[in-house]
Amino acid sequence: RHPGLVISSEQSLPVGHHDILSLIRQKPGEILRGQDDVFFLIEDDIPASIGRDNVRLDGASRGIGAAAARVFASEGWNVALNYCRSRDQALSLAAELSAGGVEAVALEGDVSDPDQASALVEAAASMGSLDALVCCAGIALPQQLLTDTTDQQWRQVMGVDLDGVFYTMRAACPHMVRRQRGSIVTVSSMWGITGGSCEAAYSAAKAGVIGLTKAMAKELGPSHIRVNCVAPGVIDTEMNAHLSRADMDALGEETPLGRIGRAEEAARAIFYLASDQSAFVTGQVLPVDGGMVI
After folding, report:
1. Separation between Cα atoms, residue 137 and residue 286, nearest integer Å
2. Which are the contacts of 197, defined by CB distance < 8 A and separation ≥ 6?
3. Residue 170 C-alpha from the chain's centroid
4. Crossing angle of helices 114-125/164-179, nearest 10°?
5. What is the DSSP letter of 142?
């Protein structure tokens, strides 16, 4: 039984949980006939958020993560937003998305800590099915030589940018494997593909994300779970706020499309890979870089 869903028989349902959710999406008052003469009456008091797909995003309070949250919500998905420090921004975003008719919650936690990463996934899963996972949290050091990078700085970048993806994915996999469906999207960088001078720690972490993505696509494929990666180029977000306008303009001129990217453009790529629009795509790295890496 489900709130608002009346079934004419107490016998076991001949359909799975996801099929019931598809029934809930039908028009109020419609009567559907299932197997073995089980009838479903769709009533008009079903909350609008029931039956929607659910996505959990980390690094979702700002930049590409926040843009992705807005795209998912605009497509009718419920959204669990993970943030670490930007509490006010995350709460404001959750309120904005909720006002649009979806369920949105802001969850505080540090994905570089395995216990917190696991707790965040469990909290998101409590919303219902975990249909998609987006690993978007990331930090970067100031540009510097490898020889000037301290052990602490190296571990800090690896902890968030790579370990956090591993911890989060490890916690989410059982939920998706149990249901035999789901989609995971990681966020790397063009530096994860090419490497960047004076960006050794960031490049290494983001290259690791790509390797993890490909490995998990093979591991989870038999369970009907897709794993893909978006590799943004230069995007106009707070991560690049340390660059001057002249620097950003110069980077835009180096890009074949002649400009830098917008957060929503990367977010749209994330949604494409997370949704059924890419149902036969897995193990791929999708650059969103204006042609910078060709």
Report:
1. 18
2. none
3. 15
4. 30
5. P
- pLDDT (tens digit per residue) in 166-180: 999 999 999 999 999
Asked if 146 and 200 count as a contact pair (C-beta separation under 8 A), the reply is yes
pLDDT reported for residue 4: 35
Coil/strand/helix, residue 46? coil
* Catalytic residue of the set 83, 167, 202, 272: 202
Provide φ and ψ at 57, rounded to 5°. Answer: -120, 135
Residue 58 pairs with which residues in a beta bridge? 135
Q: Is the CB of residue 81 less than 8 Å from the CB of residue 104?
A: yes
Q: Is 202 in the active site?
A: yes
Rg from Cα positions in the chain: 21
Report the distance separating Cα 112 and Cα 91, nearest Å: 21
Within its chain, how far is the Cα of 205 from the centroid? Answer: 18
Residue 60 near residue 90 (C-beta atoms within 8 A): yes
Between the CA of residue 118 and those of 127, 273, 290, what are the distances in Å?
15, 23, 35
> What's the pLDDT tens digit per position in 36-61?
444 444 444 444 445 589 999 999 99
* 176-193 confidence digits (pLDDT tens): 999 999 999 999 999 999
Q: DSSP characters for 186-231?
A: EE--HHHHH--TT-HHHHHHHHHHHHHHHHHHHHHGGGTEEEEEEE
pTM of the model: 0.83
What gap in Å lies between CA 89 and CA 241, rounded to an integer? 17
